[in-house]
Amino acid sequence: MTTTQQAPRTYEVRTYGCAMNVHDSERLTGLLEGAGYVPADGSDPDVVVFNTCAVRENADNKLYGNLGILNEKKMENPDILVAVGGCLAQKDRDTIVKKAPWVDVVFGTHNIGSLPTLLERARHNHEAQVEILEALETFPSDLPTKRDSTYSGMVSISVGCNNTCTFCIVPSLRGKEKDRRPGEILGEIEALVAEGVIEITLLGQNVNTYGVEFGDKGAFAKLLKACGDIKGLERVRFTSPHPAAFTDDVIDAMAQTHNVMPQLHMPLQSGSDKVLKEMRRSYRSEKYLGILDRVRAQIPNAAITTDIIVGFPGETEEDFLETMRVVQQARFAAAYTYQYSKRPGTPAGEMENQIPKSVVQDRYERLMALVNEMALKENQAQVGKTAEVLVAYEGRKDGATSRMSGRTPENRLVHFELPTNVERPRPGDVVTVKITDAAPYHLLADDTSVFAVRKTIAGAAWDAAEAAACATPSSDANGKATVSLGLPTIGKAVH
C-alpha cells in the first residue's frame, strides 16, 4: 500500500500601515511557518492574512475592496481561508464578518499569537472565528519571527500609547502603553546581531515615554547609550518620538552614542498653536522648533523628517499658513503628509467645522509643493559629498538603470552606479560613494572614482540565507566555503 504525502499549506500576509504593523507581520509569518505553512511565492495561497491599519478612512475601503476580490477566489476554491487582523480588526470586530461573511478569522492587535489556532478552528468548525482581546496577551516580540531582512531588524520597546490626541484612533486599538524591560530589549538586539543584523530600529507609539511603567523617565536615553555597547551593531534608529515628551538627555544620547544615526523623525502634525491645542498635542510650534535647534546644535548633519495633517476640523487659512511657516523654518529632509481623515470614536470626528474636501485638497497640494522644495534643497546640499551607504535589496528600477540602492546614516535613499569589474556588493554590505545628483526623495551617486566596498557580517548572513534557500554552497571573499549560519527564519516574507 502506498500513501501520498500531502503538500504543505501555503500562506500570504498582506501588510498595511506603520512600522509596528510590519513588525507584527514578521511575527505572523513566523507563527504560520512554525505551524507548518510555507510561503505561496506567487501561487494562489491556501491562507491569506490581512494585517490592517485603521488610521485613515481609505484603509477601510482598501480592505473591503480586497476582501471582495478574495470572495471570488473563495467561490472557486472554498478551502481558501481568509484572516483579518491588526488595528482595523480591533476596531470593526464583528462588523467585518457582517460585511464580508466569507472571512474565516478575525483577530485583534492584542492576540496575534492566536492566529494558527484560530485558522485551525475555522477549518475544523466551518465557521468564522472572531477573537478580540481588550488587553495585550503576549508581547509581540516574544513570538516566533520571520524577518524580512538579513541586515536590518525592528525591535519593539513598547506598545500602546497614553496620549489622547483627538484625531488618533491608535490608543483605543493598541491600548495603554506597555513597556518591555531593558534587558529583554538588549537581549533581542544581541540575538539579532549574532544572526548578522547590523541595523536595528526601536519601535514604539511614543518611544520618549518608554519607562513609564517601571518609573524611569530617563529609560529611553539609557537604552540608546546601551545600544552603543553592543559589538557589531552599526546603526540604531528609532520611531516615533512625541515632541511633548522629547527631552535633552535623548539628544545627548544621540550625539554621544557612535551607532545612533543622525536621523530624527519628529511628528509636527500642525504648525498652528490653535490647531495643536485642539489636537491635544501638549506642545506649541516654538517648542517644536526649539527641539530641532537643539538637535542640530549637537548633530549638525541630522536629517529630520516629520508627519503633517492638513484639514483638521476648524483649520483656517491662517492656521495652514502657520504650518507652511514652520515647514520652511524646520528644513525637513522629508515629510509624510496626510489629509485629515475623520475616524469614528475620536473626539475630532465629532467636532464641528469639518473642512470641505476641495479646501483640504488645495492646502495639501500647496504643502506638498513646499515639502518637495525643502526636501530637494536638503538633498542638493549633499551633492559632492561622500557617503557610506548600507546596501539594500534591489530597488524597483535597479535592473533597468544598472544601479544598486541603499541608505546613508541619515536614512537618505541613494541609487549608486557600480564600477566595471567590481564584485557586486551584497545586501548588508556598506559602500562608499560620491553623491552626484539630487531629487526630493533620493540621491544619485554615479561618480565611481571613490567607490569602495566594505564586507560586513550582514552580507555574510545574506550569503548564508541565499545558500540555504537554494541548497547551494556559499563561499567567502577568498573562495573558501562558508558555514551556514542556520538562519531558516530569515528571508523575504510576502506582504
Strands, helices and their partners?
Blueprint: E1 10-15, H1 19-34, E2 38-39, E3 47-52, H2 57-76, E4 81-86, H3 87-92, H4 94-99, E5 105-107, H5 115-125, E6 129-131, E7 152-156, E8 158-159, H6 170-174, E9 178-179, H7 182-194, E10 199-203, H8 219-227, E11 235-239, H9 248-256, E12 263-265, H10 273-279, H11 285-298, E13 303-310, H12 317-330, E14 334-339, H13 357-380, E15 386-391, H14 398-401, E16 403-407, E17 413-417, E18 430-434, E19 437-439, E20 442-445, E21 447-454, H15 457-470
Parallel strand pairs: 1-2, 1-3, 3-4, 4-5, 5-6, 7-10, 10-11, 12-13, 13-14, 17-20
Antiparallel strand pairs: 8-9, 15-16, 15-18, 16-17, 18-21, 19-20
Helix pairs in contact: 8-9, 9-11, 12-13
Q: What keyword list fits this structure?
A:
single chain; 495 residues; alpha/beta; Rossmann fold; pyruvate-formate lyase- activating enzyme; OB fold (Dihydrolipoamide Acetyltransferase, E2P); 3 domains; 7-stranded mixed sheet; 35% helix
Give a brief outline of the structure:
With 495 residues, the chain is an alpha/beta fold. The protein folds into 3 domains: 10-131, Rossmann fold, CATH 3.40.50.12160; 145-380, tm_1862 like domain (pyruvate-formate lyase- activating enzyme, Alpha-Beta Horseshoe); 386-454, OB fold (Dihydrolipoamide Acetyltransferase, E2P) (Beta Barrel). The protein has helices at 19-34, 57-76, 87-92, 94-99, 115-125, 170-174, 182-194, 219-227, 248-256, 273-279, 285-298, 317-330, 357-380, 398-401, 457-470, and strands at residues 10-15, 38-39, 47-52, 81-86, 105-107, 129-131, 152-156, 158-159, 178-179, 199-203, 235-239, 263-265, 303-310, 334-339, 386-391, 403-407, 413-417, 430-434, 437-439, 442-445, 447-454.
